[in-house]
Give the backbone structure.
Amino acid sequence: MQVSFGSVVLTLAFLAMVTAVAAALIGRKGDERWVLISRRAVYGACALLTFCVVLIELAFARDDFSFKIVAEHSSIETPAFYKMAAMWSSQEGSLLLWAWVLSIASSLALYATRNKLREIVPYATAVMAGVASFFTGLMLFAGGVNPFAKLSPVPADGIGLNPLLQHPSMMIHPPMLYSGYVAFTIPFAFAVGALITRKLDASWIRATRRFALIAWAFLGFGLLLGARWSYTELGWGGYWAWDPVENAALMPWLIGTAFLHSVMVQEKRGMLKVWNACLIVATFSLALLGTFLVRSGVLQSIHAFGNSTVGPYILGLIGVVLIGSTALIVSRLDDLRSEKRIDSLVSRESVFIVNNLLLVALTAAIFWGTFFPLISEFFTGTKSSLAAPWFDRYTTPLAILLVLFTGIGPLLAWRRVSWATAKKVFLVPTVVAAIAAVALAVFSDAGSKPWALALFTFATFALVGLSQEFWRGAAARRSLKGGSMASALVGVVSRNRRRYGGYIVHIGIAVLLIGIAASSSFQTKRDVNLRPGQSAVVDGRKVTYVRPTAKVDKLALTVGAVLRIRKGDEAFTLHPTRRFYRPTGSAGGGGISPYFAGESDSEIGLKAGLGTDFWTANQPSIVGLQRHARAADQGFAKCVRGGPGVPPQCRAIGATMQAALANPRLRPQALARIEQLQLETAKQIAAGYLSEDAPSTFRVIVNPLVTWMWIGGLIALAGAIIGLWPTRRGRRGLVADTELEALKEAKYREIRDAELDHAAGKLSDEDFALLDAELRKEAIEILDSGESREAVSVHPDRGST
Amino acid sequence: MDPQRKRKVRLVVALSVAVLLAVALVYTSFSAASEAKEPSPLVGLATSSSIDMTGKVVPGSIRHRGEQLDFRVVDREGGGPALPVTYRGTVPDPFRGGREIVLTGEVNNGTFVGEPDTLVTKCPSKFTTNAS
């Protein structure tokens, strides 16, 4: 390997991160100069890693095959769009993406806390920069994963990006997942800082809440995109398979969900501190585990990954994180004691505890199932694996309970709720859910599927309860400010973004689960074998194979079918195809059969609808095609060899080949001619396919309500964005700049929340009076402590506000 | 009930539920799991129980016979004797010679008969160190 300019930049980034760790640790006792150096070193490393990414992307854009990464994952023919995405399809590129995203997130976190958490920040910096130097160091020292590794001699063309990866999702799905994994480093780092310095109030949580939420949203959206990709692309028709790699991304998301809820309990009540510390350690470790799993080959997965050199190192990091964090939490147990106790079982905090337990149980079951091959090998000596039905057995009831609590939580106020008030807010959702349950049981197939019926009932409860929340909030605002109901709704949502953003996420999750339950319980799946002109009836729909289609271009030989689907007055046409990719780089070998030994994929025919999706994939019988191809191969070889009796254009090709053997500079020309001949032969074979009436097997899936899964996911994403969006004050730069301001802000918000709960009928007059008095007392305590604190401390490097 | 006692009761209930769940997980997982094996120990067997077979498709061994797909597999690391396989049902897009597959089924007269629709072919997706 030659030393390249990029490697030098990457080494500088590594050194900057190491400097950041060292400077942060030197300045940990409050030496502002060192802390400033560490922060600037992180900013510098971020700039350097950005430069590295730009260098790699430029190499892809310029088809610079002297870079090993470019030669192995791109080619001249790779479309420009996918050249950009090819970076993260490689091991080394994905590590660079990890380090780069982490450097950005760390820089943002350090900028946001530049005037806050003075004791915690140095340690948090050391952790963030430590993890970043680990990943940067991995690229430099682990061997074989340096993205700037060079090839000599430089190949004329690259291998190309696998056609199965050439899908628009490739552009966003991996970076989304990575950003999700990586952003969980930030709350983890601040949690470690808080534990070391024993500053275990909610300040670290307030400072990193946004990062946790961003990580959660990215990871969730990444999962959704992956599910969609699988549904539309792989010719399989499913969106989830309980594959280890899918599970690896789902587990940190589930524990992250638990964390986002339980930190609110710590923020408002000073409780669950040990639990929160454990959750964020678990989330971060699971994120690392996900990164490890896809690189290790320890578990059998549909996502095959080459055995790489970095697996053991990442496992080492997970070990350090787990052992270090556990030791730290155990040594701080005295400081982690709750400040308060739960006032009442009927309160939002107790619902959060139940939801946390459910999420953790769900994750525990998935974890056990995912790692069962290793567990069973350890205990019995044979590797056994668990299939989807085992996972469904545990995840279905837990998901049903979760959706119920998705509805109960928002209906309850913090601290305490009297039974009378609870009855009032639960009345409408309970009645509507009960009516829905009866109606579904009587008038639909749901009666025969108790799990699905339970989920629909609880989801109805949640959706009605959440709508009631919006309604009551808007009504309360309207009685205060007047105006129309719509403007009151917009007003109340935009003034309470965290609360209503969260509710919108809940609506999205309930809708998403309805989509999953309906499509998995009431799906019709059939494989039908048809010849052109024949029909079959699937789920009351007449499916007619009208005619075959075939197309040849430089990329692939595509055979397809025109299908006509009719049910009553409704009729539509679908065109599922199968593409057989022309193998690149083997044109010299010639022949047509390689088309059918190479990569192939399905372009499904999908008629999506709010009611049902009609999904179909085509598996044409290629026996005839292959026979023609073999015959063509012989003719092809004969043609290229030349000799007596071959057509004149063959003779010309033969001559060019002979000339190319003598003069290598003529090789491209010879290859181009062979490619041309290959294309023409493929076209003849395709024409033969059209005339031979070959049968095709069509997989037909009728999926009810599956569209709501995607809609639900998007609603949840919108909710997360609303919850994250800064208020007008925040945008003007008036965000809580110091910890004291953040504390005041949080308490004011709590008072406003209580007022809103009271106005919306969730708190009785007596409960509100008590709560309001408590909150105001706490607010005054904060103001008092702030005055005395500000009197003694003046911030040396106060920011721009 | 005094609060101290109440908390203890709650803790005991929560822990019991957790233990129950854990026991159920352990019990069901061992009874529901199917054994995973590579092709070489299956070669030459007359019959077998249901197995998750993991192997690598021998390049050039794939034959389409109407609806049926015949091919041979070897151990993932390559080498060893090849096991003949027959399979009907959906074939995933990435299926081809040289790819790793997981297939549920059983050995019958020396041939591994796959259950319909259980063929999983690994995505050649990422991080492959060699060209595929």
About this structure: The first strand of chain A starts at residue 303 and ends at 305.
